[in-house]
Specification:
CATH superfamily: Cytidine Deaminase, domain 2
Organism: Buchnera aphidicola (Cinara strobi)
Keywords: Hydrolase, Metal-binding, Zinc
Strand content: 15-25%
EC number: 3.5.4.33
Order of helices and strands: HEEHHEHEHEH
CATH class: Alpha Beta
Number of domains: 1
Radius of gyration: 15 Å
Distance between the termini: 39 Å
Largest sheet: 5 strands, mixed
Oligomer: single chain
CATH architecture: 3-Layer(aba) Sandwich
GO biological process, one term: tRNA wobble adenosine to inosine editing
Protein name: tRNA-specific adenosine deaminase
Number of helices: 6
């Protein structure tokens, strides 16, 4: 893990905290190219009334507009939680080079526990570099406490 991984994950974590303040599931994401921030976002499914408005999806959409290209070559995506199947497919299709994530899915029945697209090497545009567990404690605790509070408030 490089110093930059921790730095950019902290930025993604701050985005997750911002989303949490707005009642969203606290997941944040940033996209970086040449150690420069391209864009950042947090989950916005509730506020946008859009089930696909995950932090990664919003970052990919915004980056395409900013870079004027759907191919996000030579970029690194930082996300506070392991990308879901939908986001993994978008990451692969956008040709993101590197993915760094914080926490893992703890649900043993989670789709990513038996098939994670990011790790499949025989697809045409596979991810070249994947790092996991960056700020693991902070990222997993944020989600754990968020969902505990949700369950306790019901």
């Amino acid at each position: 893990m490089t110093f930059n991984d921790r730095y950019w994950m902290k930025h993604a974590f701050r985005k997750a905290l911002f989303g949490k303040k707005n009642g969203e599931i606290p997941i944040g994401s940033v996209l970086v190219k040449d150690n420069n921030l391209i864009c950042s976002s947090h989950n916005s499914c509730l506020s946008l009334l859009d089930s696909s408005a995950h932090a990664e999806m919003l970052v990919i959409r915004e980056a395409g507009k900013k870079l004027k290209n759907y191919r996000l070559n030579n970029t690194s995506l930082y996300v506070t939680h392991e990308p879901c199947f939908m986001c993994s497919a978008a990451i692969i299709n956008s040709r993101i080079y590197r993915v760094v994530y914080g926490s893992y899915s703890s649900n043993k029945n989670s789709f990513s526990n038996f098939m994670n697209l990011l790790y499949i090497k025989n697809v045409k545009h596979h991810i070249k570099d994947i790092r996991s567990g960056v700020l693991l404690y902070e990222c997993s605790n944020l989600l754990k406490i968020f969902f505990q509070n949700k369950r306790n408030s019901v």
